Fold this protein.
Amino acid sequence: MNDLSNSSSRRDFLKVAATGAIGALWTTNTHAAELPKVKLAGLNVPLLGMGTGVKAIDRSNALQRSGEKNFHDTVRRAYDEGVRLFDCADSYGSLPMVAKALKDKPRESYVLVSKIWCHEKGGIPNNEPRHDSMAVIERFLLEASTDHIDLVQLHCQTAGDWTKTYRSHMDALETAKQKGLILAHGCSCHSIEALEAAAIDPWVDVVHARINPWGVAMDGPADVVVPVLQKIHKAGKGVIGMKLIGEGKFRNDPAKIDETLRFVLGLGCVDALIVGFEKQEEIIDYKKRLTAALEEKAKVKGS
């Protein structure tokens, strides 16, 4: 039996106990920089991931526009702090830059997520092809100088019938999965109808879903969205929570950040969290707040 009188052992125990409600824990902290990790559609991912889609469109994003050095240093700091899940949708233009920043790191030590924009307009430059998802995946592999992307999703689904409209893209991603070019597939949703469709289609491995306590920049109020996320999770699909602070609306409000972390961690149906970090100090701050929220949850559960 572990000696919980040791302070570091006790902290690890609290993190295990707290994380057990939101995902199958893969490993626990053995170093101060690490984060709890969970199973997500067979992938081992940290509870906290880094999004790169802040103010992003047409393959440009806020972190990129802040300068290559800041982009590189922020990604490296995230990695060093145990944030090893990187969300790099095609419309963000961030995949090549993230891969470059991590080129000296073992490929198996981090998780790359990308998303394909298959809508007729918007998202990516208008002269870009949108009908051949296999070709897009092959481009992703070249851009990231890797033999696989861990998770590829169909980006920004809003229609209730998206699983019919984009079935050819879904078939292409399934072929890529069978070939080992990607390890899992799914969607990001921007409507309650799209979420409902994701919940019932067996093709979906992982869903990116907008979630916070206030219903800000979400697919509806929390009491409408949460039951659908519970349905998705009960079906064995992974759930990555995004827009935790209302698409940045409350990014400078520490009380709101703490509130949303406590709320989302307490739902029992969100496996991992994505935050759009633009500064290294934000990574440190979220780690501290996340740890505090996990320990608070463990105390409540044990009382």
Notes: The first helix runs from residue 7 to 19. Residues 1-32 have pLDDT under 50 and may be disordered.
